[in-house]
Automatic annotation (TrEMBL):
InterPro entries, per database record: 1-PFruKinase (IPR022463), Carboh/pur_kinase_PfkB_CS (IPR002173), PfkB_dom (IPR011611), Ribokinase-like (IPR029056), Tagatose/fructose_Pkinase (IPR017583)
Keyword annotations: ATP-binding, Kinase, Lactose metabolism, Nucleotide-binding, Transferase
Protein name: Tagatose-6-phosphate kinase
Single GO MF descriptor: 1-phosphofructokinase activity
Gene Ontology CC entries for this record: cytosol
Organism: Anaerotignum lactatifermentans
UniProt function note: Catalyzes the ATP-dependent phosphorylation of fructose-l-phosphate to fructose-l,6-bisphosphate.
Enzyme type, top EC level: transferase
Record-linked SUPFAM superfamilies: Ribokinase-like
Record pathway: Carbohydrate metabolism; D-tagatose 6-phosphate degradation; D-glyceraldehyde 3-phosphate and glycerone phosphate from D-tagatose 6-phosphate: step 1/2
Length: 301
């Protein structure tokens, strides 16, 4: 079974504000609401691709209830821990200024709730897949993903981590199967600007030296690259299409890669499925459907 963990789920409130002006009253021309948070998006795209998973993590308040309701409506399995206080976050995304977003901090996770998640994760068995994705609410240490992987060490679980900064770097000693920084996040780790493929390869290699097995680097509209544990380096430009909503493109890429890997054990296929799923989500209002992913896959070299 695949388990995704989202410590900090959200409702993504995506608004179109044609000419956003700071310091002024701005008005929207469209609004949509989707369940969000990185692990949740991975679960939803896996579901669209016909791959079952269970979404774990923490929810709180009426926003948390709505996140669960929307996921269940989509047919996703959920087993969130409800927090006693606070409210899950609402993240605001400005569609017309792509990439501009305000992501909230999220509710406080109690020690008791955290221990309950740990106990759930203790049940994972050989062959299971664990996806740890997204930021963590304030108050939790940047070692939390590392602590989880430490607890599961030796169980032969396929682990995927999509996180930034120390949260990501701290897990590398546990040899995650896959990490997926985007090129900005990769650059921030080493305090460099990643602006060409040579640098992608060099700095992805440095994360491998620190312990990552496979490093998938997404580059938005410029495509993506994969440095595998065998030392193969693949890179592809993004397929052509009209950008509609890039929220969740990175998470879709993780889901596409996983689905492709699990069905074939072939890195080239998994990589192409990742790019296709990322771009198919970027080209649609909602997260990518299977048909949209496969249509782009066919066009890739
Ligand atoms: N503007 C775009 N046009 C085409 N594909 C895109 C675009 N933005 C994202 N994608 C696809 O989604 C993948 C992940 O996007 P990216 O923005 O790099 O991830 P993240 O959301 O994690 O920063 C890219 O590698 C690409 O395949
Ligand atoms: O956990 P973080 O880093 O705050 O990010 C959460 C946000 O990222 C998303 O998961 C989208 O991520 P990507 O665009 O990187 O795929 C949103 O659904 C959510 O609002």
């Amino acid at each position: 079974m695949i388990y995704t963990v989202t410590f900090n789920p959200s409702l993504d409130y995506i608004v179109e504000v044609p000419s956003f002006q700071m310091g002024m009253t701005n008005r929207t021309t469209s609004e949509s609401i989707f369940p969000g948070g990185k692990g949740i998006n991975v679960s939803m795209v896996l579901q669209n691709l016909g791959v079952e998973s269970t979404a774990l993590g923490f929810t709180a308040g009426f926003v948390g209830d709505e996140i669960c309701r929307l996921l269940q409506e989509k047919g996703c399995h959920t087993a969130f821990k409800t927090l006693p206080e606070g409210c899950s976050r609402i993240n605001v995304k400005l569609k017309s200024a792509d990439g501009t977003e305000i992501n909230a901090r999220g509710p406080v996770i109690t020690e008791e709730a955290l221990e309950q998640l740990m106990q759930k994760l203790d049940m994972l068995e050989k062959g299971d897949v664990l996806v740890l994705a997204g930021s963590i609410p304030t108050g939790l240490p940047a070692t939390i993903y590392q602590d989880i992987l430490h607890r599961l060490a030796g169980k032969e679980i396929l682990t995927v981590v999509d996180a930034t900064g120390n949260l990501l770097c701290n897990v590398l000693e546990h040899h995650p199967f896959l990490i997926k920084p985007n090129h900005h996040e990769l650059g921030e780790i080493f305090d460099v600007t990643i602006d060409d493929m040579e640098k992608v390869k060099i700095y992805a290699g440095k994360l491998q030296e620190q312990g990552a097995r496979n490093v998938l680097v997404s580059m938005g509209g410029k495509g993506a690259a994969l440095l595998t544990e065998k030392g193969d380096f693949y890179h592809l430009p993004a397929p052509e299409g009209k950008l509609v909503n890039s929220v969740g493109a990175g998470d879709s890429m993780v889901a596409g890669f996983l689905a492709g890997w699990l069905e074939s054990g072939d890195y080239a296929h998994a990589f192409k499925m990742g790019i296709s799923a990322g771009s198919a989500s970027a080209f649609s209002e909602n997260l990518a459907t299977k048909e949209e992913v496969l249509a782009l896959y066919k066009k890739l070299k």
